[in-house]
C-alpha cells in the first residue's frame, strides 16, 4: 500500500506541475507598452502586405487570404 501511495503522490505532484506551467501565458499589463511600439508590429509595411494580399487573392481566386486554409481549386 505504501508503494501505491507514493506513486499517487508522485502523479499528483507531476500533474500540478504540468497544470501550473501554463499559468503565466499572456501579456501582463506592464508589458503592453513594449508590445505597442512600432518596431513590434507583425507587418513591417501595411502597404506591402496589402499588395501581397491582392496578388494572393488574384492568383488563388479565393477569399480569406492568409488566415484561411485551402485555395480556390479545392486541393486541400
General description of the model:
The chain has helices spanning 2-20, 32-35, 46-60. With 76 residues, the protein is an all-alpha fold.
The general outline is elongated
Kindly provide the radius of gyration, computed on alpha-carbon positions and rounded to a whole number of angstroms: 24 Å
Which strand-content bin applies to the residues?
A: under 5%
Level of helix content? 40-55%
Poorly predicted residue ranges: none
Largest sheet: none
Mean pLDDT score: 74
What's the end-to-end separation, in Å?
Answer: 54 Å
Find the structural class using helix and strand composition: mainly alpha
Number of strands: 0
Order of helices and strands: HHH
Number of helices: 3
Short précis:
With 76 residues, this protein is an all-alpha fold. The chain has three helices and no strands.
Question: How do the helices and strands line up, and which of them pair or pack?
Answer:
Blueprint: H1 2-20, H2 32-35, H3 46-60
Amino acid at each position: 500500500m505504501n508503494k501505491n501511495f507514493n506513486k499517487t503522490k508522485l502523479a499528483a505532484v507531476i500533474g500540478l506541475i504540468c497544470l501550473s506551467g501554463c499559468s503565466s501565458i499572456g501579456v501582463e499589463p506592464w508589458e503592453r507598452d513594449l508590445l505597442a511600439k512600432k518596431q513590434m508590429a507583425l507587418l513591417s509595411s501595411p502597404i506591402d502586405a496589402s499588395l501581397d494580399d491582392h496578388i494572393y487573392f488574384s492568383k488563388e481566386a479565393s477569399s480569406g487570404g492568409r488566415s484561411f486554409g485551402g485555395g480556390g481549386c479545392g486541393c486541400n
